[in-house]
Amino acid sequence: MDYSVTTRLKGVVAMTSSFHADPVLRRDRSLYKFIWVQRGTLTLVIDHVETQLAAGEIVSLTPLHRIEFGESGAEYLALLFNSDFYCIYGHDDEVSCNGLLFNGSSDVMRLKLTAGQSEALHEITDRIAAEYAVADNLREEMLRILLKQALNLFVAPERAKYYFVPQIDTKIKVSGCRSVSVYEGMELFIVSRMKREMPLSYPGPDGLIYTVYFEHNENVDAGSPLIGVCPPDQLQQIEEVVLKVQTEWQEQE
Questions:
Q1: What is the pLDDT of residues 37-69, one digit of tens each?
Q2: Most buried in the list 6, 23, 50, 207, measured by CB within 10 Å?
Q3: Which one-letter DSSP state was computed for residue 101?
Q4: H-assigned helices in 98-165
Q5: Residue in 154, 185, 188, 184 with CA at minimum distance from that of residue 172
Q6: What residues form DSSP beta bridges with 79?
């Protein structure tokens, strides 16, 4: 589980189960941290002091703490954020964590969750993960819509299962769909319906298969796209548009 967002104002928030192995997050000296052990025993060295955390325990650490991970097979989740994302000073009237969870003592704040608290925290982290998944799915769908407008679509003429002919199927598996050039009249598919199979030729303009829309061994409804074909002279332009959209999304984060 690894989720990270950087805002335009340099705010950072991340939720990860592999903080120990992430060099970018480990180098960031601006992050406040919650480390929650979910299974096993986690060994941390905090400011040169070794600490053993059991399942259900959480530590809260400031950017001033220096931590190292010891050898262990524990499962944990780290929630990380900086002041540009959420300032604990400016929002102390809301969360009252400045001086309680952070900056209140020279000792590390160590919390032991009850079963009910642990369950509630699992629900929160699951909702966070779900929010990321929704955003990713929406972005993927927006890209699909954009590509469908730019590509020549070859749609299914009837509801059936569709397969590439063997030589094309092998080439796609080895080199990817964009290694396949198509032309009008090219025998491209095998249509399987009601225990009968028949060939299907490509009827559109010449080009490269840019994307494949159907799944192996799944029925495709009539009118649904099977492939999107890109004219060779437009491939670079389409890839530049896709890259621009993806870059803009990353900047918005």
A1: 999 999 999 989 999 999 999 998 888 889 999
A2: 207
A3: T
A4: 115-150
A5: 188
A6: 15, 34
